[in-house]
Amino acid sequence: MAKIFNAETHKSSDKELILSLKEGKKTAFVEIYDRYWSLLLSHAIRMLQDEDIAQDVVQDVFQMLWEKHLTLNIHTSLSSFLYSSVRYRILDQMKRDKIEDRFLSTLQTEIESGVTSTDDAIAEKEFTRKIEEGLNKLPPKMRTVFELSRIHEYSYQEISKELNLSENTVKKQISNSLKILRNSIKKGYWFFC
Predict the structure, then answer these.
(1) Region 83-104: what's the mean pLDDT?
(2) How far apart are the C-alpha atoms of 9 and 12, rounded to whole Å?
(3) Phi and psi (nearest 5°) for 20?
(4) Nearest Cα to 96, choosing from 186, 187, 173?
(5) Does 163 score more than 60 pLDDT?
(6) Is residue 100 part of a domain?
């Protein structure tokens, strides 16, 4: 008796998926995505302690996977490749955040001490303009939440009460605001990349 192939019950192996992906088959990409998305996201959240950034990192890995599917050379298992890619993206993200924090700290120290050169003054003015641009891109409610937190130094709980929002919503709004502001700043400064 001949075996009947049922595509719904057949799960491709990782090796089969890699070969199909290299051939440009979107179904292979979708199967990889479905198989690994939540696992990679959990891994990224554990490392970053921030779900929004973790989602961005995992999304970047899948975007890279699709964009480079024709030239992929995976010498390990697919899962090892994906986990390593997520880990490298996270480390890169942390490095960028450190550079940004160091620059902001140095700039703040110079401003407070009053020791600034003409170049620093120009850089500060440009930086301030980029932040203002970023703030203007924020939706009104998000901007209000951000300003209450960062300018008026309200706690999440105080903002929650003031605006009748859940603390989780406040946290998410601030996280999204920071992402938008970082992107606005990075566009003008190569050293944030």
Answers:
(1) 76
(2) 10
(3) -65, -40
(4) 186
(5) yes
(6) no
Range of the domain at 75: 11-94
The whole-angstrom separation of Cα 148 and Cα 11 is: 51
Q: How confident is the model at residue 133 (pLDDT cuts 50, 70, 90)?
A: confident
Q: Higher model confidence: residue 81 or residue 129?
A: 81
Contact assessment for residue 18 and residue 74, using Cβ atoms and an 8 Å cutoff = yes
Q: In b/e form, how buried is each residue of 139-163, taking b as 16+ CB within 10 angstroms?
A: eeebbebbebbeeeebebeebbeee
Assign residue 139 the CATH number of its domain. Answer: 1.10.10.10
CATH number of the CATH domain containing 22: 1.10.1740.10
Specify whether 21 is located in the same domain as 65.
Answer: yes
Give a yes or no: residue 83 inside a domain.
Answer: yes
pLDDT at 155 over 80: yes
> Is 142 domain-assigned?
yes
Domain count, the chain: 2
Taking residue 28's Cβ as centre, other Cβ atoms within 10 Å add up to 19
Between the CA of residue 88 and those of 80, 170, 191, what are the distances in Å?
Answer: 12, 30, 19
On whether residue 104 sits in a domain, the answer given is no
Residue of 108 and 41 predicted with greater confidence: 41
